[in-house]
Amino acid sequence: MDIFNDQENKNAPLIRTFQQVQTQELEIAPLATENLPMQFTPTTDGIAKRFEFLKKHTGKELPYLAGKQTFNEVGTLAGNIENYIGMCMVPTGIIGPLRVYGTEARGDFYVPLATSEGALVASYHRGAKACYQAGGVVSVCLEEGVQRSPLFKFGTISDLGSFMMWVLPQIDKFKEIVGTQSRFAKLIDLKATIEGNHLILTFEYQTGDASGQNMVTLCTDAVCKYIVENVPTKPTFWFIEGNYSGDKKATALSFTHVRGKKITTEITLSNEIVRNILKATPEMMTNYWRSSTMGVVQSGAVGAQGHYANGLTALFIATGQDVACIAEASTGITRMEMTADGGLYASVTLPNLIVGTVGGGTSLPTQRECLELIDCYGVGKARKFAELCGALVLAGEISIAAAISAGHFSSAHQKFGRKR
Questions:
Q1: Most buried in the list 5, 237, 267, 322, measured by CB within 10 Å?
Q2: Can you give the CATH number for the domain in which 225 is found?
C-alpha cells in the first residue's frame, strides 16, 4: 500500500516531514565575522548602529520601527481594534543570528523581541549565540490543526445517541459547507465527547497561514446551523464553543493532540561552548533540569519547561500574533541530558503553537516589518515562523538553565533588569 496515496493514513504528512528533513543537506555557512552591536544601556548611537547592521545583513530598512515613518492610516485598523485612540509603544530589541535548520526555516535569523522586561533580550541573545556556535538548531513542524468544540444539550442520553449517529456520517457534507465559508480552512477530523446528556463535537481544521481561530469559528457555526436545521433529533440548546477546544488556556489535552502547530527542536552543545558562552557546565545544567522538572511536576503545571512565555510573548507582540494565545502556546516540554562526550543535548517540544503570518495583527506597520525582517510575512510562511518559534524557545531554555544552575541568574537581573 502506498501511504502517500492513502487518504485515510493520517501519518503520511508526518512521514513526509521526516523524509524531507533527512534528504535535505545541511549546508553550514561559515560563522559570521561581524557581530550584532550589543548594548545593554540604549543610546542613540547604538540604535543607529544596529539599524545599519540589520540593513547590511538582511536588506531591511524598517522605517516604522526606526521612527522615520509614522502610522496614520487608521482606516486599515478595521477588524483589529474598537474605540481606537492610539498605539502603545513597546520597546523592541533584536537577537541573533539564530541559525535554524527546519523543513521551512533554514538560515540565520535576526529575531525581534518586544518587551519591557530587562535582561530578557540579553538572555535569549546569549542562548542564540551558543546555538549558533554549535552549528544551529534543528526545528521541525510535526503536525497542524485548529479546533472548535461546540456543545449540544439533550433531554436524554438516548436523544443524544440518535443525534450523534446522524451527525458523524455527515463529515463529507460538512467539508462541503466549510468550503463555502473559507478558501483556506479544511475540515480534517470530527470527534465526539459525551458527558451525560451533553455532547461536545470537536471539529479539527487546517487553516493555512492564518492562526485560524476566527476562521474555524465561522466555519463551525455554519456547519452547526446546518445540523440543527436538518437533524431529526433536535438538541435542547447548543453553543458554538463548549470550552473544550483549549482555546487560550493550558489543558490536559495539550500532549494528546495538536492545537495550532506542534514543533520539536533540538541542539547539541559541546562542553567548550557551554563553559565559554553559557558560563556553566553540562553537568550543572542537567542537574538543574532534572531537579526543576521534579519541582514543576509537584506544582501541577501542564508541561515541564522553564520560561517559554518570555520569548514567545515578546515575539508575539513584535509580530502581531494573538498574545492571549500564550496561555496555550507556552505549554511544552524541555529536556536536557549529557552526551557521551561530555556535551549537552537539549530539546523543546511545543504542541500548541497558535501562530499565523497572514490576518490578525500581522499587517500592522511595525508588526509587518518584524515579520519581514525574519522573512515570515504573508502566504506560505506560517510553518517557517513556527519552526523559528521553536528555535527561539530552545535558545531561551538553555540560557536560563545555565544562569540558574551556575548561580548568576540573580546577578544578571540585578545588572540588566533594574532601574537605576
A1: 267
A2: 3.30.70.420
Q: Which of 204, 239, 274 is the last residue of a domain?
A: 239
Q: Which residues carry out catalysis?
A: 117, 322, 413
Of 215, 239, 263, the one marking the end of a domain is 239
User: Which of 87, 97, 93 has its CA nearest to residue 137?
Assistant: 97
Counted domains in the chain: 2
Q: Are residues 157 and 280 in the same domain?
A: no
Asked if residue 219 is part of any domain, the answer here is yes
Q: Nearest CA to 377 among 318, 326, 310, 327?
A: 318
The dihedral region occupied by 247, where left means phi > 0, alpha psi between -120 and 50, and beta the remainder, is beta
> Which domain does 178 fall in, by range?
150-239
* Amino acid letter for position 368: R
Dihedral sign computed on CA atoms, order 185, 187, 191, 196: positive
Residue 47: all three cell numbers together: 540604535
CB of 334 closer than 8 Å to CB of 289: yes
**Full-model pTM:** 0.91
Q: pLDDT tens across 100-138, in order?
A: 999 999 999 999 999 999 999 999 999 999 999 999 999
- 45 in a structural domain: no
- Asked if residue 157 and residue 124 are part of one domain, the reply reads no
Q: Ramachandran region of residue 350, left (φ > 0), alpha (ψ -120 to 50) or beta?
A: beta
C-alpha 149: how far from chain center:
21
